[in-house]
Amino acid sequence: MRQNMSVLIHRDRIANRVRELAMEIGSAYNGQAVVVIGILGGAFVFMADLVRQADFVSQVDFLWLESYEGQKSTGKIKVRQEANVDMQGKDILILDDILDTGLTLGFTREYVLNQGAKSVRAAVLLKKDRENVDPALAENVGFTIPDKFVIGYGLDYNGKYRHLPDICVMEPEKENL
Ligand code: IMP
Ligand code: MG
Q: Do residues 138 and 127 make contact, with C-beta atoms less than 8 angstroms apart?
């Protein structure tokens, strides 16, 4: 591990919580099967682990969005790849790695409803503990974490470190060094 990283959530705790989340979401849907949309790139590891423990999945698809540069949100969302699945009249579960400012989930919930979805729900593995973010954006949250930049388990820094099995805190970027 590099010197500027430290483990925040170990892989064993992640695995336990993902198992619980699959059950919590399943009981919210009460045996009904839904379309799961993962937000790429960050959700791919969480999604792979969650859907394999879930009893509520009918189809799986992806929406690829970009909003970050380095450790900061640009405040704008770019759609890199649209989802293909027909959402008309369907119940949609959105999965993402982390809820930070809420821009991504706000955008995606609206996107899904604009495609004609009957209902929308969102689950995130992580939520940053910060003010002025609408808690209704994610119905299911794995862990609430301090407002720090994290990597691993799908989360990246400029495209790197997504493959790390633990969630790690990365030291803030040093400006103009
Ligand atoms: P939001 O739109 O600000 O809520 O941020 C959500 C998106 O930003 C997530 O899908 C992540 O891809 C990315 N993101 C937010 N915080 C972090 C972080 O600490 N590390 C890596 N990516 C992050
Ligand atoms: Mg993301």
A: yes
